[in-house]
Amino acid sequence: MDIELFLEKMFQVVLYMSIVPIGVGIYCWTYLSWPLRIFWLSLVVGLLISLIGDYLMAKHINNHVMFYVNTATDAVLMTAFFSAFMHSPFLQKFYQGLCVGLLFFMGWGIWTWGSSLNTALRLSSIESCVVISMALLVLTNQLRQSTAVSLRRQPVVYIVVGVLVLNLFTLLLNLFGSQLYTYSARLFNLFYDTLAPLSNLLSYIFTCIGFWQSRSRALPLG
């Protein structure tokens, strides 16, 4: 097995490893707050999108549409998740409006630029920037409100760190990936199939810790 095939298989395996934090979330379900349940839903949706995308590929059907579906659903669910931790009504409305605007921009972008890898990377980069800004805002608020001891027990802190890691890697891949793809599709695949699994794996680890910490931070919701 050559390195390209190994990395491709590893990428697929890591994508399906989202079943682990999904399982941890189910185990801790009665302790999860509603925002954490929304985040759990985003994991389920992401897994379903991966399954559908692989099915389309197996049937030799173009699965580019799943890139856009993933970007759109992630924008909606991440906005709903982070908005719950924003104390300012103005910021909540701002990011909710920004999410709606992003969805319209995605439709315009696909219509204008066409459905291509560059379009998918461009729209994904914009969405990642929005998610990163929300994550930094919420994380900053958590750092201001919590002591060093209690901070380690805050589930949202681990979740947000995982989101930051994933989206920073995604942004890095998107920004340099398009240039690599133009230069060499092989190098792009190596670059993508190396960093993408790593970022996903780190995100899953932080998510599992966050869900597990909810057991000691929250009372059962029933």
UniProtKB/TrEMBL annotation:
It comes from the Bacteria. This is Uncharacterized protein. Keywords: Membrane, Transmembrane, Transmembrane helix. The chain crosses the membrane at residues 12-32, 38-58, 65-88, 94-113, 125-143, 155-176, 188-212.
